[in-house]
UniProtKB/TrEMBL annotation:
Domain of life per record: Bacteria
Annotated Basic and acidic residues bias: 356-367
Pfam families (alphabetical): FAD_binding_3
Region (Disordered): 356-375
Classification of source organism: Bacteria, Pseudomonadati, Pseudomonadota, Gammaproteobacteria, Enterobacterales
Source organism of the structure: Citrobacter gillenii
Family (UniProt): Belongs to the CbrA family.
Protein name: Protein CbrA
Sequence ranges assigned to domain FAD-binding in this UniProt record: 134-211
Length: 375
């Protein structure tokens, strides 16, 4: 049975960043559900917007984005819609529009060869015995077992590692539903949609490579019905849908209390969404995935006895920042306070109307041609 210093479960942005940063410093194995390249197999449903905090993380690492992960168009505002109040406002935002699956594969491609990576693999079981973590996983068509000194849960909303460490821990969850349509709007746009009849969270739309993505986070029980209802309502706000090209679903966490942020114990650590590190006000998680990976890298390389205690202390500022997002989300999802904020007109930028189409045929072709991408 092979033994490693670190076993990372999941190679989304958090796991991939940590694996890259520990390369050459510790013996690392990493397991990931995604395939090494292409669009077959597991893909993460995501709107694919890179926030300024995530951009700063790449600046610190001296990394630039390759052109094949950047999507078109680049839009500098978010259209915010309050359905019940029939209010629409435009707020400036500095996101980078990306192809999320291509981004994830690119992040994996940055991991040096000395890290042992298993693609298209599934972690089945973890447990602690003595001073070692045991991991059973399926890869290359057969079941394998390894041990590691440190276990890292970077496995997202349904984290196996978090469930093992905190079997009684409950955190609010939603089903995130997205549908892709051929873009029909004269001017592409991003949007953030609030409708308390549909969800006490929020919904969104994104124009990307000739497609229009409409999605949202809804209660687990009847999410699809609520999604369909909101689609119908959005026609009054000139949203154009047509026949869906594809549909996606996944679970998304919604932290609502301080104790929803969990860091790990007994030489097991949680990073990214597995730790509850996701913004309650926007459901943006890439920034906090990259930040928590950077923090944990520093802790693992420190000469301290209790690394779990050191990690909890080191993530305190990050958790305080995320708790602020919880408070912000309460104001945004409250019909009364949201209406007051939007009616005030603070930070709203009036937008001109353009009758002519701004989406070129070439941009539409990009989305249709983006097949089998491999960094």
């Amino acid at each position: 049975m092979e033994h490693f210093d670190v076993a990372i479960i999941g190679l989304g942005p958090a796991g991939a960043a940590l694996a890259r940063q520990l390369s050459g410093k510790m013996r690392v194995i990493a397991l990931d559900k995604k395939r090494q390249c292409g669009t077959e197999g597991f893909t993460k449903p995501c709107g694919g917007l890179l926030a300024p905090d995530a951009q700063r993380s790449f600046i610190r690492d001296g990394i630039t984005l390759p052109v094949d992960v950047i999507a078109n168009p680049q839009i500098f505002s978010v259209k915010t819609v309050d359905v019940a109040a029939s209010l629409t406002r435009n707020y400036q935002r500095s996101y980078i529009n990306i192809d999320r699956h291509a981004f994830d594969l690119w992040m994996k491609s940055l991991i040096p060869d000395d890290v042992q990576v298993y693609h298209d693999s599934l972690c089945r079981k973890v447990w602690r015995e003595g001073d070692k973590w045991h991991v059973i996983f399926r890869a290359d068509g057969w079941e394998q077992q390894i041990t590691a000194r440190y276990l890292i849960g970077a496995d997202g909303a349904n984290s196996l590692v978090r469930r093992h460490l905190y079997p009684q821990h409950q955190i609010r969850k939603y089903v995130a539903i997205q549908q892709w349509f051929t873009e029909q709007h004269p001017v592409p746009f991003y949007s953030c949609i609030f409708d308390n009849d549909a969800t006490d969270c929020y919904s969104w739309s994104i124009s990307k490579d000739g497609f229009f993505i409409f999605g949202g986070a809804y209660p687990m029980k009847d999410g699809q019905a609520r999604f369909d209802m909101l689609k119908t309502r959005m026609e009054a706000f000139h949203f154009q849908f047509g026949k869906p090209v594809k549909s996606e679903k996944c679970t998304v966490l919604f932290p609502s209390r301080w104790k929803d942020f969990v860091c790990g114990e007994e030489n097991a650590f949680l990073i990214g969404e597995a730790a509850g590190f996701i913004s309650a006000s926007s459901l943006e998680g890439i920034s906090y995935a990259l930040d928590s990976a950077e923090i944990l890298k520093s802790v693992l390389l420190q000469d301290v006895v209790d690394k779990n205690k050191a990690y909890r202390k080191a993530t305190r500022k990050l958790r305080i920042k995320l708790y602020g997002k919880i408070l912000k989300s309460r104001a945004l999802t409250s019909a009364f306070s949201r209406k007051w904020i939007m009616r005030s007109g603070v930070a709203h930028i009036p937008q001109a109307e353009y009758p002519e189409s701004k989406t070129t045929t070439d941009e539409k072709d990009v989305g249709q041609m983006r097949q089998g991408i491999c960094p």
